[in-house]
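User: Run a structure prediction on this.
Assistant: Running it now.
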Amino acid sequence: MRYRNYLLAALLIAATCIIGAYSADTANTSEEQQAQVSQGEPVPGDLLYSEDFSSSKSGWTYTSDEYFKKAFKNGEYYLTIVPADYWNWVGGPARLNFTDFMLEIEAAKEAGPDDNVFGLMVRKIDAENYYAFLLSSDGYYQIAKKENNSWSYVSEWSKSSAIKTGNSTNLIKITGNGDKLALYANDAKLADYNDSSFSYGGIGLYVGTQSEGNVTFGFDNLKVWSIKE
């Protein structure tokens, strides 16, 4: 009987320790979430749009020319730039206009040189007014704003170890919350950009070449969420 009493007491002590540890972990998690909110990091809300590019009926254009080729292939959206030192973009369906948002897409170089350009355009008013968030397959990123058909802001190319190089797949994320925009690669924040020129607009994909031509990118799993209040 005494042995059973000792065993029961030991179990009660162990249970108390476990509950205490769990409570501490929960408190720590809550503190981390509160810290994220206090730092102003946006939290995704409702899913507003999703596209896996499995069908050419998605609303994304697939017309091509000798310089810029677009195709739906292997469940991805392929964009190819043929000439050297040539950049171009394709806009999403006209119905896609977002104010505050969190956008994610997977992008992988399928062929061509690592010294290239790929990324996203957001809050696109028209072909002359938008923000561009760009990366390269050799590990660099850049932020730019085109306003009234002129590049009114262009950051220097900056290198980041968060960007996967070569033919690896990169998860690109952009958030727009009021005049606060941010660029992420593979869940690591690369840069913040504050600007109030465009408060809403469409989305699009950007690709380009530098000194060498013939680069192809495959884009997949595009998702857009609202920002949770």
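The domain at 44-227 is CATH 2.60.120.560 (Jelly Rolls).
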